[in-house]
Design goal:
The structure is a homodimer of 330-residue chains.
Chain A (H helix, E strand, L loop, with lengths): L3 H12 L3 E5 L11 H15 L5 E4 L1 H5 L2 H14 L7 E6 L3 H14 L4 E4 L5 H8 L5 E7 L5 H4 L3 E3 L7 E2 H11 L6 E5 L4 H10 L5 E2 L10 H8 L7 E5 L1 H4 L4 H24 L9 H12 L3 E7 L5 E6 L8 H6 L1
Parallel strand pairs in A: 1-2, 1-10, 3-4, 4-5, 5-8, 8-9, 9-10
Antiparallel strand pairs in A: 6-7, 11-12
Helix pairs in contact in A: 2-4, 5-6, 8-9, 9-10, 10-12
Chain lengths: 330, 330
């Protein structure tokens, strides 16, 4: 059976996109405060971006605020997403036992979503009913960018297993990595704190991240991608809501965002493939490295070093004598 | 303006009850899986117990699993609760900014609940929109009794302020106590782990607890009340769902539960008032104390002891000689 992750990756590859389009019918964005207007707002976005979106993410809250008719609208919006595009319901549920089963039933069967965001506070058994079926997915809250995130998420925790202290959010990432037996569990990790993204990727090398905060919240796209992308250049969904929904031309904006994401991604992957990852270099160091390369001090190929070891890289600083400017730079 | 806590305490005092009746239309408890059956199931419970219930607690999940009609049913059920009885929506929401505002709008305005359960993972700003109005209340997840609770809640955390390590759930209790400026914030603390209840009460002496786990989950009522009651004998709501809903006579069962809770509560308060708290006594010690009282060895009143001190209690063990059985017990 195809796992949720496989389903998502198929779509991402098919449309070469990490863009997850948020369907957030904010009251202020609607022509009138009605379920009909909310539905129209979302289906217009879906129609404009169905060949660009890696996934759609309707936000349950804005539909619930519209009462029973809002739930009808949410069902219609999810049904309007073409087959083959994952729908992530942003609902941040979290409960146990038969209650968790009822929520899972509501999310997957009643609403027809493929995945859902959950809160981790109640622990593993609160997640299980949502990931028991591999084709259904979960994005677990891990690290968010709001001011209150530090109240819990940044606390240092001491595991009873006696491992070194971790931040709570890192602990959750570590747990989630081990709970992903069905290949359908991901994490919500905000884009604005790059160091945290780095830490979460280290703790959960395999998982997909849902990474809000690019656009409206002002997160740096390149820095976020560099920290969060998996080794295979996948593993991150970039949800964008208002920046697309409120644009004069949502389609053009979505196309531009996809291109920008892909450009950054290609550059990052290229720098990762070349030896001595440029990601660890500052601007000055990077310039120096380029100059050393230009001067022929650094060569790539197959070399046998004096030590007898084989190396794909050969550094010959004797050539530096011919480049006095480089010496002063170093 | 009357705060949610004042509203709740007025009701608790009026009907002399800590019983919070859960409205959980489990699929298996319904004559058919329909919103109508769910509504009927709940209104029948409300009618049977409206003069006994301190509060009602509908569980959002079971209504959401019934689709838009389920939300209509939930609205009707909440509307069927007589004025003056608080309705706590068990929804365990948790989101930030405009999303949190939309959820608060859905809970309070659309559904008409007086209070809601929330998850604390996103921190203070995720709670604010729900407690901004003092007459609306929140019960924040703190310590639950499920197996996965230990994944996060029991972790030892080190606060950046450098205080001694606490469990995460104690940290939340400490925070909640400081966030209760409007007198409308409480905590969800399971009944089955009495030590945890004790710790939470120490960290949050003023707050109301919603304490599930009596009945179906087998928590010890007396031990839970002893650990969780505030100094004024209030501060705990005991939610009971299946034990009442599935009883042959829900009303009789609710009456019996209220009596049992009140009996235990009175005993606990009495023992707290009398010097040398009986709470430290084991069952055997308690029997012995009662027997000593019966034998006249212990008298209450105003006594001047040989030391010259005044005492409200006088112990005369010389009378023991007439009660050889008591001597062998001691």
């Amino acid at each position: 059976m195809e796992s949720f992750t496989a389903f998502l990756e198929k779509r991402v590859t098919q449309v070469d996109s990490l863009l997850c389009i948020g369907l957030d019918p904010h009251r202020g964005d609607l022509t009138e405060f009605s379920a009909q207007a909310a539905g129209a707002f979302c289906t217009r976005l879906i129609e404009a971006t169905a060949d660009i979106a890696a996934a759609y993410k309707p936000n349950a809250a804005f539909f619930e605020a519209l009462g029973p008719e809002g739930i009808v609208a949410l069902q219609s919006v999810i049904a309007a997403v073409p087959d083959g595009i994952p729908v992530l319901l942003d609902a941040k549920r979290g409960d146990i036992a038969s209650t968790a089963e009822a929520y899972a039933d509501a999310v997957y069967r009643v609403l027809g979503a493929d995945a859902v965001t959950l809160s981790p506070y109640l622990g593993r058994d609160s997640i299980e009913p949502f990931i028991a079926d591999p084709k259904q997915g979960v994005f677990l809250l891990c690290k968010t960018s709001n001011p209150g995130a530090s109240d819990l998420q940044d606390l240092e925790v001491i595991d009873s297993s006696g491992t070194a202290p971790q931040r709570l959010y890192e602990h959750i990432a570590t747990l989630a990595q081990t709970w992903n037996a069905h290949h359908n569990l991901g994490l919500v990790v905000g884009a604005t704190q790059v160091e945290s993204l780095d830490n979460v990727r280290a703790a959960a090398p395999d998982l997909w991240f849902l990474t809000p905060g690019i656009g409206a919240q002002g997160g740096d796209l390149r820095a976020a991608l560099r920290a969060g992308l998996r080794a295979d250049g996948l593993g991150m969904l970039i949800p964008v809501s208002r920046a697309i929904a409120r644009a004069d031309d949502p389609r053009e904006t979505a196309l531009a965002l996809r291109s920008q994401i892909n450009m950054e991604r290609e550059e990052i992957m290229a720098s990762k493939e070349s030896p001595g990852s440029a990601s660890a270099l500052t601007g000055d160091q990077s310039q120096l490295a380029d100059a050393l390369l230009d001067a022929g001090c650094i060569q790539f190929g197959n070399f046998t070093l004096r030590s007898g070891l084989e190396s794909p890289i050969y550094i010959d600083l004797r050539r530096l004598a011919s480049y006095p400017k480089l010496l002063s730079q170093a």
